[in-house]
Design brief:
about 210 residues; alpha+beta; Endonuclease - Pi-scei, Chain A, domain 1; 4-stranded antiparallel beta sheet; 3-stranded antiparallel beta sheet; about 35% strand; disordered C terminus
Length: about 210
């Protein structure tokens, strides 16, 4: 292999790695909760903050954005709920109460339960994968706790792509613990346990 062939292979490999690392994200126009106001993701700037969520103490700290990573994708996932649709890249992480962990958008199903800002469960009515849909995505790089709220429904998400999915795995037990505590010490709000018997507890969290 000569130097030219080696450089060509190196560029091809680096492009593949970059594509893998930038697999998470939300499409332009997606609302993000910032200072308790929904703003389009493309209006965010490096160094500013958005409303985060810390499940360790159930607080909503303003979380700094160290970087914004725009990238192109051709697959768009539509997550359907009774309140409307949420669009994301296939690897965007959502907390699934039923599973008790963060899951990629493409892995959600009609059994999945999402969480909103008030920690109410939102039933996923299924997903639809739109292929051959060129889309500009933006992946948020966030400081801890790495959790934020997006879409008009203010759904809880994790900023980590699957290349660093261990961050989501680290956060999941704290979310589960907070939900478990809420189920024990407080009366559920209307809709908190839609579709489930309260006596059975929160699926995937007990």
């Amino acid at each position: 292999m000569n130097m030219r062939q080696f450089l060509g292979l190196l560029v091809f490999t680096l492009c593949g790695i970059t594509s893998f690392l930038l697999s998470s994200g939300l499409p332009a126009g997606t609302p993000i909760l910032q200072n308790n106001i929904l703003v389009p993701i493309e209006s965010l700037q490096i160094g500013t903050t958005i409303t985060g969520y810390n499940p360790e103490d159930n607080s909503y700290p303003e979380t700094k954005i160290p970087d914004l990573l725009p990238h192109e994708g051709s697959i768009l996932v539509e997550i359907k709920t009774k309140h409307g649709s949420i669009f994301a890249s296939p690897d965007q992480l959502f907390y699934d109460v039923h599973a008790g962990e963060f899951k990629k958008s493409a892995e959600l199903s009609a059994t999945s339960m999402l969480l909103d800002k008030e920690l109410r469960q939102i039933q996923c009515h299924g997903i639809e994968i739109h292929e051959n849909s060129p889309t500009t995505f933006c992946e948020l790089s966030l400081e801890e706790p790495h959790l934020f709220f997006s879409s008009d429904q203010k759904i809880l998400m994790h900023n980590a792509g699957m290349a660093i999915a261990t961050a989501g795995e680290k956060a999941a037990p704290f979310v589960a613990k907070m939900l478990g505590n809420a189920a024990v010490i407080s009366h559920p709000q209307s809709g908190w346990l839609d579709g489930f018997e309260q006596s059975q507890g929160l699926p995937g969290l007990m």
